[in-house]
Structure formats: structure tokens, C-alpha cells
From TrEMBL:
Organism, as annotated: Actinomadura graeca
Source species taxonomy: Bacteria, Bacillati, Actinomycetota, Actinomycetes, Streptosporangiales
Major localization class: membrane
Keywords: Cell membrane, Membrane, Transmembrane, Transmembrane helix
Compartments in which it is found: Cell membrane
Family statement drawn from the similarity comment of this UniProt entry: Belongs to the drug/metabolite transporter (DMT) superfamily. Small multidrug resistance (SMR) (TC 2.A.7.1) family.
Protein name as catalogued: Multidrug efflux SMR transporter
Record membrane topology: Multi-pass membrane protein
Listed Pfam families: Multi_Drug_Res
Chain segments annotated as transmembrane: 33-50, 57-78, 84-103
Domain of life: Bacteria
Length: 108
């Protein structure tokens, strides 16, 4: 259950980042409010997951989901540049997160 919370928290982090971009420096009301709601929800879910998971691994997974998800959506729907180097770097982030989990990053 805790890992599901981390995954959902990571998805909320992606939404938070996209709203941050859409807020245009917090000058647009709805994206600014979305940022606030998604940020509080993301951190809240991560906090719940940390009751049973190791902080380093859980945080790395959360950040990884947020970073990769935001970068991919940026490339797919927001017109961010796509390059082989970016895709390779994102693959390394994913490999690192998987490696942390394989190294025993479960709950205690």
C-alpha cells in the first residue's frame, strides 16, 4: 500500500509541475491554485508512505516519477525539445530508481 501512495504522490508531483508552468509565475489563478492543491496532496501522500518505507528510496522514487513524468509530458504535450540525450538521461533516472528498489528499499 505504501508504494501505491508513493506512485500516486509522484503523479501529483507531475501535475504540480505542469500547473507551476501554467501559472506563469503565479499570475494565473487556476493553475496557481492547482499547483497548491497538487503540492499539498503530493507531499501529504509521500508523508503517509514514509511511515513504513525508507526515506531515501521512497523519496528517490517520488522524485523519479515526478522528474521523468514531467519531462515526458513536457516533450509530448508542451512542446519541449526531444533528443536522444534527454531520453537516455531519463532512462538512467529510471534505472537508478529501479536499482534502489532492488537494493532493498522496502519498508522496515
Amino acid at each position: 500500500m505504501a508504494w501505491i501512495l508513493v506512485i500516486v504522490a509522484g503523479l501529483f508531483e507531475v501535475a504540480m509541475a505542469l500547473c507551476l508552468k501554467g501559472s506563469k509565475g503565479f499570475t494565473e489563478l487556476l493553475p496557481s491554485l492547482g499547483f497548491l492543491v497538487f503540492a499539498v496532496t503530493s507531499f501529504g501522500l509521500l508523508n503517509l508512505a514514509l511511515k513504513t518505507l525508507e526515506v531515501g528510496t521512497a523519496y528517490a522514487v517520488w522524485v523519479g516519477i515526478g522528474a521523468v513524468g514531467t519531462a515526458v509530458l513536457g516533450m509530448l504535450v508542451m512542446g519541449d525539445d526531444v533528443s536522444a540525450v534527454k531520453i537516455g538521461a531519463l532512462s538512467l533516472i529510471i534505472a537508478g530508481v529501479v536499482g534502489l528498489n532492488l537494493a532493498g528499499g522496502g519498508g522496515h
